[in-house]
C-alpha cells in the first residue's frame, strides 16, 4: 500500500479536504444559528401576540379564569398578575401556580422578554417569557410563554448540511488530488529522465512541457544545469587529460635518464645525470605547485588582507626575476589595493613570465588609476602588461584562460609553460574582486588587471 500522505498530492488533498470541511462546518453553523435566531424571533412575536390578545380582555374588564378561549394555533401558557403581584387568571395548564416570572417592562417600554428556566413549567425546559403591562385601575402584567427552540430547529436541514459537508469535502479533496496528479505528470517525467542520466551520459535532457508554467521553467532550469554540468565534466576530463600529458613528459625524461644510467653505469657521470634530470624535476615541481594553487583557489581558502602598493609590488617582483627582455616601467605611486601580497605577487609574476615567453624584445608594465570602469563604483587600480610579440587573436582571448591551454605559437616556442599561469592569474584577480582581461593593442598582447582601489 502506497503512503499517499507522504506525497505532495496526498498532502494537498488532505489539506484541501480539511480546509473545505472546516469552511463547510463554519457555514453550516452560521446557517443553523441564523435559522434558530429567525425562528426564535418569530416565536417571540407569536408569544407577544398571545399576550396582546389577553391584554385586550384585561383592558375591557372581561377577565375570567381560566382565561377566555384563544385560537388553537396560539395556545400558549399565559398568566395575569394584578397590581398587588397576585396571579388572578391563567390558562388551564398553569392553574393554581405562582407567577412564571418576576420581571416587568421598564418605562417607557410596555413589553419585555427574557428566557426563564426552572420556573413553574412542568417540562423542565427553558421558556421564552414575554411580559406586557396594561393599565386598568393600576398596572397589570400579562406573562405569556413558549418553550425555547433547540439549536437545530429543523432536523432535516441539519441532516442535509451534514451530508452535504461530507460529500462536498470528499469531492473537493478528490478533485484536488486528481488535478495535482495531472499537473505533476511532467514532474514525474523529469524525475524519470533524471534517474536515467548517468555521469557518462550527460547528453540527455529532461522533457519540457508545452504549457509555460512553473514546471516549464523548472524543466528549462534543469536542462540549463545539465548543460553546465556537461561542460564542467568535459572541462574536468580535458583537464585530467592535459595534466596527465604534461606530467608524462618530465616523468618520461627522468625515466629515460635513469634507465640509461642503470644500463651503463660506467658511462654515466652522477653530475651529468643530475643536471639532465633536474629540469624535469623542476617542471614537475612547477606543475604540482600550480595544481596546488588552483585547488586552494577553487576551494576558496581564506587569506589575510593587507594594504599592498601595486607599484612597489611590481618593482619587487621584477627585481626577483631574471629578465631576458627589455622592461619599460610606468609605475604610478599611491595605487593601493587590499589583498594577499603573496597571491598578488604570483599574479604579477605569472603575467610577466607569460609576456617574457611571447615578447620579441620589449615588455611594458604600467600601474595607474582607472576610473572609467562601470564594474567598480569607486576608482580601480589598473595593472597593464604589454608585450611586443605576435599577440592573441580575438577569438582566442578567452581560450588562453582555460587550464592547460597553450596556443600553437606557445607550444612551438615552449619555454617551460604548462598552461596554468594565466588561469591562476585570473582566478587570483577574481578572488580579490577584480578582473583580468585581454584588451586591444597595436602590437602584441595587452593583459589588463583591475582591482578595487583601497583608500
From TrEMBL:
Q: Which residues cross the membrane?
A: 12-35, 153-176
Report the main location listed first in the record. membrane
Output the superkingdom of the source species.
Bacteria
Q: What is its EC number?
A: 2.7.13.3
Question: Subcellular localization, per the record?
Answer: Cell membrane
Q: Residues of the signal sequence?
A: none
Keywords of the record: Kinase, Membrane, Phosphoprotein, Transferase, Transmembrane, Transmembrane helix, Two-component regulatory system
Annotated Gene Ontology cellular component terms: plasma membrane
The segment(s) forming the HAMP domain are 181-234
Which InterPro entries does the annotation name? HAMP_dom, HATPase_C_sf, HATPase_dom, His_kinase_dom, HisK_dim/P_dom, HisK_dim/P_sf, Sig_transdc_His_kin-like_C, TCS_sensor_his_kinase
Q: Which Pfam families match?
A: HAMP (PF00672), HATPase_c (PF02518), HisKA (PF00512)
Recorded catalytic reaction(s): these are: ATP + protein L-histidine = ADP + protein N-phospho-L-histidine
Q: Which GO terms describe its molecular function?
A: phosphorelay sensor kinase activity
Tell me where in this chain the Histidine kinase domain is found: 242-455
This chain belongs to which protein, by name?
A: histidine kinase
**Protein's organism:** Streptosporangium subroseum
- Higher taxonomy: Bacteria, Bacillati, Actinomycetota, Actinomycetes, Streptosporangiales
